[in-house]
Amino acid sequence: MKLSLRSRYQLSDGNEIPVLGFGTYELAGENAYRAVKWALEAGYRHIDSAEWYENERECGRAILDFCAESGVSRTDIFFTTKLKHNAGFDATINAIDRSVELCGLNYIDLYLIHGPWGGPDARRQAWEACVAAQKAGKVKSIGISTFGMRHMQELFDSGPPLPAVHQIDLHPFMTRNEIVEFCRGHGIVLEAWAALARAMRFDHSLIVNLAKKYGKDPAHIFLRYSLQKGFVPLVKSTDHTRIVSNSDVFDFELDSTEIAELDQLNEYLLTDWDPTDCP
């Protein structure tokens, strides 16, 4: 399938998710607002936030202002946010309501449990609250983030509905093969929140050589790898030029041999955190 910035993947719940997202981790205040506006103006239609990032208000305001100025419908923008604490059913419902109010968008397109901490009961109650919020129309799709194999199996053993999305760190140096295979087997779309490995391997010889071959930047090689693996990569920048450049990944394609070579780079490279083995 030939992809473009407007392409979307079908989720198991019938909704659709844009294939490239703009992340806002560590973006605060006017920096978050400005970066999201630039991303939307550059053609991104997928904005990723979180309660933890403390920028839901700025992201929502940027989306609404962009829609008002451009004529683009709110329904064309896919907005994600995430639960900060797994603190029980009522606390999760309250957190969802607070996020809906803060972003000002009337509903959330994708709501994720940000991590598996708190133990089995806390995870179960958080998930049940997400299901209830989806039924109430507060959120369109629900999913998980940074869950390990045990956490996913535990969730699936409790019965449907299953998460539509799993957001986790994925890149050539962190392939998480077991988690990827499990999610694909259950129809769960994978989002790569560290698709660029935080530029920690931009100087790797294979990355450099591929960038030279295709006349691209190292970042483009990482993003193209992610797209061809069927992931939804998230990119983040506060630089206008870089925001635009990161979307320029739909005019070339890595061949199967190159994808296989990139797959072999796995070294379990952590770029931030890894709660996949928490109790």
TrEMBL record:
The keyword Metal-binding does not apply. Gene3D superfamilies: NADP-dependent oxidoreductase domain (3.20.20.100). InterPro entries: AKR (IPR020471), Aldo/ket_reductase_CS (IPR018170), NAD(P)_OxRdtase_dom_sf (IPR036812), NADP_OxRdtase_dom (IPR023210). One of its GO terms (molecular function) is oxidoreductase activity. The record marks 82 as: Lowers pKa of active site Tyr. Residues 20-267 form the NADP-dependent oxidoreductase domain. The keyword Oxidoreductase applies. The active site is at residue 53. Substrate binds at residue 114. Keywords: Oxidoreductase. Belongs to the aldo/keto reductase family. This is Aldo-keto reductase. It comes from Russula ochroleuca.
